[in-house]
Amino acid sequence: MTSQEIRQKFLDYFKSKEHLIVPSAPIVLKDDPTLMFSNSGMTQFKDFFLGYKTPTAPRIADTQKCLRVSGKHNDLDDVGRDTYHHTMFEMLGNWSFGDYFKKEAIAFAWELLTEVYGIPKENLYVTIFEGDASENLNRDQDAFDFWKSHISEDRIINGNKKDNFWEMGASGPCGPCSEIHIDLRTPEEKAKVSGLELVNNDHPQVVEVWNLVFMEFNRKADGSLEKLPAQHVDTGMGFERLCMALQGKSSNYDTDVFTPLIAKVEELSGKKYTGILEDEKDIAIRVVVDHIRAVSFAIADGQLPSNGGAGYVIRRILRRGISYSYRFLDMKEPFLYKLVAVLQEQMGAFFPELEKQGTLVTEVIKSEEDSFLKTIENGLIRVEKLIQQTIADNLKVLPSEEVFELYDTYGFPDDLTRIIAEEKGLTIDEEGFKAEMEKQKQRSKSDSAQKVYDWVVLEEKPEAFVGYDQIESETYITRYRKVENKDGEFYQVVLSNSPFYPEGGGQVGDKGILENATESFEVLETKKENGLIISLISGLPKDAGAVFYAKVNATDRKNSQANHSVTHLLHEALRDVLGTHVEQKGSYVGPDYLRFDFSHFNKMTEEEIALIEEKVNHKIKESIALQEFRSIPIAEALEKGAMALFGEKYGDNVRMIQFGSSKELCGGTHVKNTSEIGHFKITSEGSAAAGIRRIEAISGDKSEEYFKNLEKQIIELSQLLKSKDVVRSIEKLIEENASLKSEVDALKKEKAKGEIGDWKNAYEQKGNKQLLVKKTSLDAGSVKDIVFQLKREIPTSVTIILSDADGKPMITVGVSDDLAADYQAGAIVKDLAKEIQGGGGGNPGFATAGGKNLDGLENAYQKALNI
């Protein structure tokens, strides 16, 4: 059975059991403050379990893309070193929302595995929750009794809380679970040791294949459990492990989920995959084929590699793959991007985003490879310098601070530094490096640390967002909770009627005031979490249940919604001018400016930018009225021509915003008429990532302010130049400046010629070598020219020039070629630069360093005399 057939059989089976088959949600989560990525099949259904949303159907089945590379569920370091851990994997799942429970879930699982897939019953074991006295949880007797009708009691194993009580995170839906394990060993191995002894003991051939979670509880922030409003079933079966079992393989990587990718890596690298666990080459191949899947799906779902948040995680995964291929597959040129086409062929039919976004995914990965390979090459030079300095200092251990700087600042893999050091007979300060890593982690934690308490519910009531129609509303608090972070103590509140727009769709959340006759609180931000609109306020009201008046900051809202509406007009104009390949890839919409990222592979010309501005401003002047379809079936909206953004998760009913021919699915706030936008101005256009361009722009009040400032600057320039023809006056200044510069350069050269003669006679004989240490006020360019001339003309010489030009300390070192084996200009300048609180570098023959301490030049001078 092929992997495609295995996946299809699962979906067909549950469709026959009256389950609605739904597509996978995006792997990247954009509106969940607790998670960056979908780490399990149940993530997209969390609101259903908590009762915040009504399920689209009581029974659902799907295959969900998952990523486990951060937080509690982190498999990254295990990937490649065993047969079954992955970063990105598929989770086949069936769900019941208050419909069937343990009996039916167990029966479905058993029937599918043994009758549909034909797995021998004697190869299966199951576990149940044994209970936990500390939480007052009893043994799951119901699950045991239901399993008895399918499997012998001696194959039903009690499992502890760690293995058989499933929790998504520190808080959220949870409950006892029942795992199904499969024994894939040979008959001879089974005869020696019973599979009972190997379940949940990390045996590579006795593995968990399916987990049936019986959602009954919600874990609160204080650690306590409360009953969910209804009982649910949440199951997750590892697709890759299922393929391993059904295809008779001993490793996930031997199944056709991975073999086409492995074959392509073999072809491109010339290395043969043998499947040996300890072989570094095979580990590298497993890392590459796993990581290319994770990165490709994340980019296809809208998450570009970057230096922060989810983007940093994706960049880290990709760089791990590049690093392994560089070190163990000898791949010094980009090649991972060539695997995307293989992945498309394998999975494109089930995951159309790979097909639609294939060009973007390929270009982004290629660009990241190019960039990181340059980082590695530059890092190798830095490592070599560090090693030479360590040897020169008669040390055997590379300093931890410098190794960490290579890793943290320059992105150079620490394990690569370790390998190179060992080849030179050196080591790195392991404990010191770990300490530096821990310091960084603590810094990151302290910056983002936040303690969130449990909700205090004043009234169980559906909250309403009224902000589309009004920016002020009478309201009261339905629930609140305390939040503590580095800035102090705050409270998050949910309002019965909230005019505050919650951050989402690129638009910032509203700020404002919550007040009544006796109290007033500043609303600092508004976000959405688990379907709730949450506003952060500066304190807790004395009477939390009192009636309040909520007021949005009207100026900020007006400017934000003008910028949001203009992004729709901009999107349409970009597609008109550049082509329909343009798709929105991200945005920021605030009161001060807007940022718009879009797919396009070339820098925009000045003519294109001007045409875009013209088209958008024409739409603004047309005074096009907003047509809002507040709740429309998504199929109808798409039929009307609405743009849906890739990587976004839409419900059955959506909101469509239309300004004439511009139609987009959008939940943000907008102007009632394009004339309210005022004027649109692009302030910058540049690259955001490979294949992604970024426009920053302003509109409304900020656009007006922009042109007023320009006018003011022109008036001031005109006054300074004493001319109304500013352009011609500046052209004359440029001509005069160029003429004066030529004269200055000529004078410098004459002065330098005079210095050279004096300096040649100032070398001090040191044994059979010559040393020149000289102070000067010549500029850096002149000093460089002189030093290069001297090191060519004066044999067996070291030349050290200390300059104070423009009040800045500069040290320049030249070493003649015949002394290159004995003296390193870079090492000399690095030592001297300590005296001027600076740093620098170069090559063995020439190096420079700048610094902050001008007074330190004297110490550097005295130190240089003793070389």
From TrEMBL:
Q: Which cofactor does it need?
A: Zn(2+)
* Cofactor binding description: Binds 1 zinc ion per subunit.
In its UniProt record, a GO molecular function of this protein is: ATP binding
**Which NCBIfam families does this chain map to?**
alaS
- CDD domains cross-referenced by the UniProt entry: AlaRS_core (cd00673)
| Gene Ontology biological process terms in this record | alanyl-tRNA aminoacylation
Does the keyword section mention Protein biosynthesis?
yes
Identify the stretch annotated as signal peptide in this record.
none
- What's the protein name? Alanine--tRNA ligase
From which residue to which does any coiled coil extend?
723-750
Q: Which Gene3D superfamilies match?
A: 2.40.30.130, 3.10.310.40, 3.30.54.20, Bira Bifunctional Protein, Domain 2 (3.30.930.10), Threonyl-trna Synthetase, Chain A, domain 2 (3.30.980.10)
